[in-house]
Each structure stands twice: as structure tokens, then as C-alpha cells.
Amino acid sequence: MTTIAQLTFIPLYTDHPRETVEDILEFVAQEDVEVEIGYLSTTIKGDKETIFSIIREVYETMSLQGEQFRFHVELLSPISA
After folding, report:
1. Residue 5: which region, alpha, beta or left (left: phi > 0; alpha: psi -120 to 50)?
2. Is 32 within 8 Å of 39 (Cβ atoms)?
3. Which domains does the chain have, with CATH numbers?
4. In Å, how far are 15, 78 from 73, measured between CA atoms?
5. CA separation for the pair 29, 19 (Å, rounded)
6. What is the dihedral of CA 44, 50, 51, 53, to 10 degrees?
7. What would the mean pLDDT of 15-37 be, rounded to a whole number?
8. Residue-wise pLDDT tens digits, 7-25
9. Which residues contact 52 (CB under 8 A, 6 or more apart)?
């Protein structure tokens, strides 16, 4: 089964929001998932454990860095591979 998540990360109160988003995209690209980068969000497809691990890692990393952000996660029902 493949899990699909649409991620939208919005840095708040920063002079360099693009850099923050690019860092997150680089991290996601290193994982074992399919990545489709859109104008306002990124869709990732992969096994459930990897998808949830990515979501958790992004959230925890940005929280530890003291960033203020909005992180929207939309999950689609799993599909058969």
C-alpha cells in the first residue's frame, strides 16, 4: 500500500522563507519517497512509516529551531501499489 501526503509548510516571521522551504524540500528528496513539488504544496508518496516519519521529522526539526510556522498535512487514503 502506498500512502500519499500533501505537505504545505509556511514559515512565519522570517526574512528568508524560501530558504527554509528549500531546506525542507532537500530533506524530503533524500528520503525513499516519490516527490511532486507544486506551487503551494508538495506531494509525497511512499510507505506509511516513511511518510509519517518525514512529517514528524519536519515538525520536530522546525520546532527545535525555534521557527514559527504553519504546517498543513493532508493525507489521502492509501492506494494499492
Report:
1. beta
2. no
3. 2-79 (3.30.70.930)
4. 24, 15
5. 15
6. -130
7. 94
8. 999 999 988 899 999 999 9
9. 3
Mean pLDDT over the full length of the chain: 93
**Cβ of 79: how many Cβ atoms within 10 Å?**
10
Inter-residue contact 44 to 33 (CB < 8 Å): yes
> Residue 75 carries which DSSP code?
E
Helix axes of 17-29 and 48-64: crossing angle, nearest 10 degrees? 150
How far is Cα 36 from Cα 42, in angstroms, rounded to an integer? 6
Cell representation of residue 19: 530558504
Q: Does pTM surpass 0.85? A: yes
